[in-house]
C-alpha cells in the first residue's frame, strides 16, 4: 500500500510552512514514533513522527521549500518494491503524530 | 578638604537669586518655577561635574542651568520666549536645554526626565568616554513610577548616573511627609544597592563634598548613586500658584536661607568683609541687569516659526 | 524596448523580514540598539530578533525588566544622546505605560530644541486581537497619528515589514512601528537586494474602478478578501494599503477616490476619531464630499471570548456587505 505525508494543520492560523530537515532518505524505514521531518512555522518547529511503520519512497519538498498546509511532502509504502503511482494520484494519508515546540 | 571655591560658590548663588528676583519683578514673567532657597543644591552639585558630564533636571530648572554655566542672558531670553534664548524661546523654563554647556535639558513632567537621563547615561556608558550624567528632581518625583523603574534599571546596568533629589519638602501644597512613606528619600537608592546619602541641602560646602563623593563613585564605574539634599522653597510652587504657607512661616524660612548662611560663614571666618559682600551683590545685580536687557532687546519669534522643527 | 526587471525575491516569515532589516541596520550603524523584554538570547516574543544577540551581544541588545515607562525613556535619552534604539513593546496596549517619554519627550524634542536635538528611535509593537483579551488586543494607532513629531507605520506584508523597518531605523525622529499578530503566520516575498520602503507612500494592492477601499495592517487581508467576494457580484475595488499612517499619503487615496467616486475605510481600531475618519476628511478636502462608509471594531472592549472577539472585529463578509450597500447608495 502507498501512503502520502502531507503538511499537517498543526498550528492555528498557519497556512504555509517551511521544510527544516528530513530525518531519513529515500529507502529509510520508519517505525512508529520515529521522527520523519521537521517543519518550521513562524514561531514553532513541528516535529512529524511516524504513527505507523513505513518505508520512505519519495521526497517531494527539500529543506527550505515553502509548502501549503495539505500539500504532499512524501510517499511511503509498506514494502520496498511496491511500485509508486504516477503523478499526484490519490493515496491514503500515513498516520502521524506531531509535536509543536 | 574643600571641594568648592567658597567665594565662587557664593557668587554663583547670588547670581541665581538675583536672576530669579529680576525675573519675578518683571511684570510679564510668564509661568516660572523658581528655586530660591535651593541654590546651594544646584551650585554644590555642579561643582562636582566636569565638562564632559551632562546635567538634566525637572521643571525647576533655572538655578541648575545657571549653576551649570548656561549664559544668563540666553536663559533669560529663553524664559521670556525670545529668539535669543538657547532654544530660540520655544522651550521655556520647563524644557530648555544647552548640551554644549553640559545642560542636557529640563523636562517639566514630574519624574519624566529621570529615565531620559538614564538613557543619556547609557549613551555615555556605550561611548566609554568617562562622562557621567546627573539628574536633579524634586521630592514630588519620588512618588512617580518612572523613578522606581529607572532606579532599578540603572542599578542593574551600572549606568554612570547620579540621582539627586532636591527635597524642598513640598510638592505644590503637599508636604513630603504626607506624600512619601520612606524615612529618607535616599533610602530609595539604597534599596537598589546604590551609594546613597542624605545631606543638608542648605549647606553648599556639604552638598559639594557629598556630590564629589558620589561623582567619584559613579565615575569609577561602581554604578549609580543617590544623593538627597534637604532644602527649602522660599517662594510658592510657581509664579502662578498660591502660597500655602503663612507670612510667619515664610519669615522663619528666610532665616535658613542658604545664601545668608554661606555669606555669614565667609564673613565669620574673615574671608569676606561687609564691603566685599555688598560688592558681590551689586555685581550679581549688574550682570543680571545686562542679561535682562539682552532678553528685552531680543525679538519674539515670528508666528511662522510655529511649524518649524516639528518633524 | 525597455523591460522592467523584476527584482529577485526571497520568501520569508514576517519575523524574518524584521530580523533581516534590524540585522542589516545594526551591521551598518553601530549606534542601532535593541531594548525590550526577552529581546536577548530568547530572540524576542515573536522570534523577531532571532540570532541577533549572538552577533551583536549584550551591550547592543539589552533585555529589560517589565518597565515600559523607563525602557522607552531610556531609549529616548540614548536617542537624544546619539544612539538609534529600537524598543520592543510586546503589546501595543502596554505602549500607554511609556507615553510620557514617547509623546511628551521624544516627539517634541526636535521642536523644543529648535532642531538642536532629536530622538531617532523606533518603538516596535504589536497590535490586534488574537484571543488575548481586553488589554492585549487594541489598535490605538489613531491616537498616535495626532501627535506632532511622531511617525507611525504599519506593514501588512513581510516586504513592507522589512522596508519600513529599515526606513524607521534611519529616521531622525521617533517612529512607532506596528506589527499585527495575525499577520505573523503568513510568509511573503521580500526583495533579495537591500530595499527601503519610504514613509508617506501608500500602495495599491488591487486595481479597481467602483469603490476605493483603504486599510492597513491585518485588515488589508480582510479588505482583499472582501474585494474578492464582491468581485463575484461584478464590483471592482481599488484596494489601498496605507502602510504609513503618519505621514499619510492622501495623494494616492484622493487620486483613487477621484476615479471611483466612493470610499470605504476599514480598520481594526475604533472608528471614532479613527484612521478612516482622518483619511476620509483629508481626502474629501481634496475631492469634495463623496459617499463614504467607515468600518472598525464595535464600540466595545475586545474580549478574549472567541464569540465576542469575532463579533467585535470586522471580517470579510461584513466588509463585503458594506461595499455592496455603499454601491447601492
TrEMBL record, chain A:
Cofactor(s) the record lists: (R)-lipoate
Keywords linked to the UniProt accession: Lipoyl
Q: Where is the Lipoyl-binding domain?
A: 2-77
Fetch the Gene3D superfamilies from UniProt: 2.40.50.100
Source domain of life is Bacteria
Which InterPro entries does its entry note? Answer: 2-oxoA_DH_lipoyl-BS (IPR003016), Biotin_lipoyl (IPR000089), Single_hybrid_motif (IPR011053)
Identify this protein by name: 2-oxoglutarate dehydrogenase
UniProtKB/TrEMBL annotation, chain B:
Name the catalysed reactions. Answer: N(6)-[(R)-lipoyl]-L-lysyl-[protein] + pyruvate + H(+) = N(6)-[(R)-S(8)-acetyldihydrolipoyl]-L-lysyl-[protein] + CO2
Locate the Dehydrogenase E1 component domain: which residues?
18-303
Task: List this protein's GO terms for biological process.
Answer: pyruvate decarboxylation to acetyl-CoA
GO terms, molecular function: pyruvate dehydrogenase (acetyl-transferring) activity
Which cofactors go with this protein?
A: thiamine diphosphate
Q: Which UniProt keywords apply?
A: Oxidoreductase, Thiamine pyrophosphate
Q: Which Gene3D superfamilies match?
A: 3.40.50.970
Purpose: The pyruvate dehydrogenase complex catalyzes the overall conversion of pyruvate to acetyl-CoA and CO(2). It contains multiple copies of three enzymatic components: pyruvate dehydrogenase (E1), dihydrolipoamide acetyltransferase (E2) and lipoamide dehydrogenase (E3).
Put simply, this protein is called Thiamine pyrophosphate-dependent dehydrogenase E1 component subunit alpha
From TrEMBL, chain C:
Transmembrane is among the record's keywords: no
Fetch the Pfam families from UniProt: Transket_pyr, Transketolase_C
Superkingdom of origin: Bacteria
* InterPro entries given in the database record: THDP-binding, Transketo_C/PFOR_II, Transketolase-like_Pyr-bd, Transketolase_C
- Matching SMART domains, A to Z? Transket_pyr
Q: Which GO terms describe its molecular function?
A: oxidoreductase activity
Q: Which residues form the Transketolase-like pyrimidine-binding domain?
A: 12-186
Q: Name the UniProt key words of this record, in alphabetical order.
A: Oxidoreductase, Thiamine pyrophosphate
List required co-factors.
thiamine diphosphate
Matching PANTHER family: PYRUVATE DEHYDROGENASE E1 COMPONENT BETA SUBUNIT (PTHR43257), PYRUVATE DEHYDROGENASE E1 COMPONENT SUBUNIT BETA (PTHR43257:SF2)
Q: What is this protein called?
A: 2-oxoglutarate dehydrogenase
Gene source species: Gluconacetobacter tumulisoli
Organism classification, top ranks? Answer: Bacteria, Pseudomonadati, Pseudomonadota, Alphaproteobacteria, Acetobacterales
Amino acid at each position: 500500500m502507498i501512503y502520502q505525508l502531507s503538511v499537517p494543520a498543526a498550528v492555528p492560523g498557519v497556512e504555509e510552512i517551511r521544510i527544516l530537515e528530513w530525518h531519513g532518505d529515500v529507502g529509510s524505514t520508519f517505525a512508529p514514533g520515529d521522527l520523519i521531518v521537521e517543519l518550521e512555522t513562524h514561531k514553532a518547529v513541528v516535529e512529524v513522527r511516524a504513527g505507523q511503520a513505513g518505508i520512505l519512497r519519495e521526497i517531494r519538498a527539500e529543506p527550505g521549500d515553502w509548502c501549503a498546509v495539505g500539500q504532499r511532502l512524501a510517499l511511503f509504502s509498506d514494502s520496498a518494491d511496491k511500485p509508486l503511482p504516477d503523478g499526484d494520484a490519490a493515496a491514503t494519508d500515513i498516520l502521524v503524530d506531531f509535536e509543536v515546540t | 578638604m574643600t571641594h568648592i571655591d567658597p567665594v565662587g560658590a557664593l557668587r554663583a548663588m547670588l547670581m541665581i537669586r538675583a536672576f530669579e528676583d529680576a525675573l519675578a519683578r518683571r511684570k510679564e514673567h510668564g509661568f516660572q518655577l523658581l528655586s530660591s532657597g535651593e541654590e546651594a543644591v544646584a551650585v554644590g552639585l555642579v561643582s562636582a561635574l566636569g565638562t564632559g558630564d551632562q546635567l538634566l533636571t525637572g521643571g525647576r530648572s533655572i538655578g541648575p542651568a545657571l549653576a551649570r554655566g548656561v549664559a544668563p542672558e540666553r536663559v533669560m531670553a529663553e524664559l521670556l520666549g525670545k529668539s535669543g534664548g538657547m532654544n530660540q524661546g520655544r522651550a521655556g523654563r520647563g524644557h530648555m536645554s544647552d548640551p554644549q554647556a553640559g545642560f542636557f535639558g529640563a523636562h517639566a513632567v514630574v519624574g519624566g526626565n529621570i529615565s531620559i537621563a538614564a538613557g543619556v547615561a547609557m549613551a555615555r556608558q556605550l561611548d566609554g568616554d568617562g562622562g557621567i550624567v546627573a539628574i536633579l528632581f524634586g521630592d514630588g518625583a519620588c512618588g512617580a513610577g518612572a523613578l522606581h523603574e529607572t532606579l532599578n534599571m540603572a542599578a542593574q546596568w551600572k549606568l554612570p548616573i547620579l540621582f539627586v533629589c532636591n527635597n524642598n519638602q513640598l510638592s505644590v501644597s503637599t508636604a513630603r511627609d504626607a506624600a512619601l512613606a520612606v524615612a529618607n528619600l535616599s533610602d530609595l537608592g539604597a534599596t537598589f544597592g546604590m551609594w546613597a546619602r542624605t545631606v543638608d541641602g542648605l549647606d553648599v560646602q556639604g552638598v559639594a563634598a557629598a556630590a564629589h563623593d558620589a561623582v567619584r563613585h559613579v565615575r569609577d564605574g561602581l554604578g549609580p548613586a543617590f544623593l538627597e539634599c534637604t532644602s527649602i522653597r522660599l517662594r510658592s510652587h510657581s509664579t502662578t500658584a498660591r502660597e500655602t504657607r503663612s507670612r510667619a512661616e515664610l519669615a522663619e524660612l528666610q532665616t535658613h536661607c542658604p545664601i545668608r548662611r554661606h555669606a555669614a560663614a565667609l564673613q565669620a571666618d574673615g574671608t569676606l568683609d561687609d564691603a566685599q559682600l555688598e560688592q558681590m551683590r551689586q555685581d550679581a545685580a549688574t550682570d543680571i541687569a545686562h542679561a535682562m536687557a539682552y532678553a528685552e532687546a531680543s525679538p519674539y519669534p515670528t508666528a511662522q516659526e510655529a511649524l518649524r522643527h516639528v518633524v | 524596448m525597455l523591460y522592467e526587471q523584476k527584482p529577485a525575491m526571497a520568501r520569508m516569515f514576517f519575523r524574518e523580514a524584521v530580523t533581516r532589516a534590524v540585522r542589516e541596520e545594526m551591521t551598518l550603524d553601530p549606534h542601532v540598539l535593541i531594548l525590550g523584554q526577552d529581546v536577548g538570547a530568547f530572540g524576542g516574543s515573536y522570534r523577531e530578533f532571532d540570532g541577533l544577540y549572538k552577533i551583536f551581544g549584550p551591550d547592543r541588545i539589552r533585555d529589560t525588566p517589565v518597565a515600559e515607562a523607563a525602557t522607552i525613556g531610556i531609549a529616548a535619552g540614548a536617542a537624544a544622546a546619539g544612539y538609534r534604539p529600537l524598543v520592543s513593546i510586546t503589546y501595543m496596549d502596554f505602549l500607554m505605560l511609556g507615553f510620557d517619554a514617547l509623546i511628551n519627550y521624544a516627539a517634541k524634542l526636535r521642536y523644543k530644541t529648535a532642531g538642536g536635538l532629536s530622538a531617532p528611535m523606533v518603538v516596535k509593537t504589536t497590535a490586534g486581537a488574537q484571543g488575548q483579551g481586553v488589554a492585549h488586543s487594541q489598535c490605538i494607532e489613531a491616537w498616535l497619528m495626532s501627535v506632532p513629531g511622531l511617525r507611525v507605520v504599519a506593514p501588512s506584508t513581510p516586504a513592507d515589514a522589512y522596508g519600513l523597518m529599515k526606513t524607521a531605523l534611519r529616521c531622525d525622529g521617533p517612529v512607532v512601528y506596528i506589527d499585527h499578530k495575525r499577520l505573523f503566520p503568513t510568509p511573503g516575498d521580500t526583495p533579495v537586494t537591500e530595499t527601503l520602503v519610504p514613509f508617506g507612500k501608500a500602495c495599491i494592492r488591487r486595481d479597481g474602478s467602483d469603490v476605493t477601499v483603504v486599510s492597513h495592517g491585518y485588515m488589508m487581508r480582510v479588505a482583499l478578501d472582501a474585494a474578492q467576494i464582491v468581485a463575484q457580484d461584478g464590483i471592482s475595488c481599488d484596494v489601498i494599503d496605507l502602510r504609513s499612517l503618519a505621514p499619510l499619503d492622501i495623494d494616492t487615496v484622493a487620486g483613487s477616490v477621484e476615479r471611483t467616486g466612493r470610499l470605504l475605510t476599514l480598520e481594526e481600531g475604533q472608528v471614532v476619531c479613527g484612521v478612516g475618519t482622518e483619511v476620509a476628511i483629508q481626502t474629501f478636502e481634496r475631492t469634495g464630499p463623496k459617499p463614504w462608509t467607515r468600518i472598525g471594531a464595535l464600540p466595545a472592549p475586545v474580549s478574549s471570548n472567541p464569540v465576542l472577539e469575532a463579533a467585535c472585529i470586522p471580517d470579510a463578509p461584513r466588509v463585503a456587505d458594506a461595499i455592496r450597500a455603499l454601491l447601492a447608495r
